[in-house]
Design brief:
The protein is of the alpha+beta class and 318 residues long. It has seven helices and 21 strands. It is globular and about 50 Å long. It binds flavin-adenine dinucleotide.
Length: 318
């Protein structure tokens, strides 16, 4: 067993800061004033004060410990596929795992360890190639393992909380914790963890499967997705969560006349009324105005208050 695999599979012993090397901060991969529009799938968002791309769990620990000591706010970024960032940008530090933390390790017996920054479509392909089953339904979600775990994302009857065994989280003091799946409260598009911080790694247990069958299933599901959802557009996917009841958010918005509604370059997709699209130079204010109009229209027609699924950063003042 390689050193990496051994470290990944065995429980975290040290819960404190022991063993963290000093001096890694000078070699950090980071950008000051990065435009968040380049890091979100809808292509909207002003500058972040500091965007850091850690290469290891240890670097994440170092960044979080030093930012806590400096009393600066830290946010985690995955693929930015469920995010609306203000045109005014965000203060503090954004920690993005997608660029440098995307390893996946396979062990006997269907155990898989994934860095939180690995893209889920890639993860699903690697699992299929290893003849493991359980991730196929998630293979079309354009987020990272960490992003999906944060909100228990899912599709086609499967959510990520059903297949995860444990999650490693670095808390805002810089301490690493391993949390068993039974300690997390997973429900529809939410996950409550006993520790708050940045998810850095997760362990999965998958069923033995068949590579050809896994690829056929993923192909069929992606075709289904393409038929129902806009493709190749700048979007953050669903704007609102599906409320309880028979009608989903897209159907409610469509019935309320919001399909194709627009504010500037922000538009509710003609193909799927709950998908928000940036047709060109949409601003965060335009998106917010359209969200408010959609919510109001559904409230008036159906007496249902939709709550947003998309996460918002730096929006409070708009
Ligand atoms: C075309 C399209 C289709 C989509 N289809 C689906 C679908 O079928 N099902 C579905 O559930 N969603 C879907 N989504 C939404 C989105 O892909 C998911 O919500 C996904 O989980 C977001 O992952 P991310 O890595 O992009 O997270 P981001 O958008 O980068 O972040 C979202 C939130 O998670 C937090 N976060 C991200 N990474 C971490 C981390 N490592 N540790 C702690 N917090 C973190 C962020 O701080 C933020 O609050 C779709 C989006 C698009 C654009």
């Amino acid at each position: 067993m390689s050193g990496n695999l051994q470290r990944a599979l065995y429980p975290v012993r040290a819960r404190g800061n022991e063993g963290r090397t000093r001096g890694t901060m000078s070699r950090l991969d980071e950008v000051a004033g990065a435009r968040m529009g380049k890091h979100t799938t809808i292509g909207i968002g002003g500058a972040s004060e500091r965007l850091v791309f850690p290469r290891s769990v240890r670097e994440v620990q170092d960044v979080l410990a030093s930012e806590r000591a400096a009393n600066r706010k830290v946010r985690a970024l995955g693929a930015g596929s469920n995010l609306l960032v203000s045109d005014g940008g965000v203060r503090g530090t954004v920690v993005c795992l997608r660029k440098n933390m995307g390893n996946v390790l396979f062990a006997p017996g269907g155990a898989v360890v994934a860095d939180a920054g690995v893209m889920v479509p890639r993860f699903a392909v690697l699992c299929a190639l290893s003849a493991l089953s359980g991730v196929e339904e998630l293979g079309g979600i354009p987020g990272t393992v960490g992003g999906l775990l944060t909100m228990n994302a899912g599709s086609y009857g499967r959510s990520i909380g059903e297949i995860v065994e444990w999650v490693e989280i670095v808390d805002y003091e810089g301490r690493l914790h391993r949390v068993g799946a039974s300690e997390v409260r997973f429900s529809y598009r939410t996950a409550e963890y006993p520790v708050r911080g940045i998810i850095v790694r997760a362990g999965f247990r998958l069923r033995p499967g068949h590579t050809g069958e896994a690829f056929s299933r993923m192909k069929a599901l992606n075709e289904k997705r393409r038929a129902k959802q806009p493709w190749g557009e700048r979007t953050f996917g669903s704007t609102f969560r599906n409320p309880q009841g028979d009608e989903n958010a897209a159907a409610l918005l469509e019935r309320a006349g919001m399909k194709g509604a627009r504010e500037g370059d922000a538009i509710f997709s003609e193909k799927h009324a709950n998908f928000m699209i940036n047709k060109g130079r949409a601003t965060s204010s335009e998106v917010l105005r359209l969200i408010a109009r959609g919510r109001e229209a559904v409230q008036t027609l159906s007496a249902i208050t939709l709550s947003t699924e998309v996460e918002m950063w730096g929006i409070a003042d708009e």
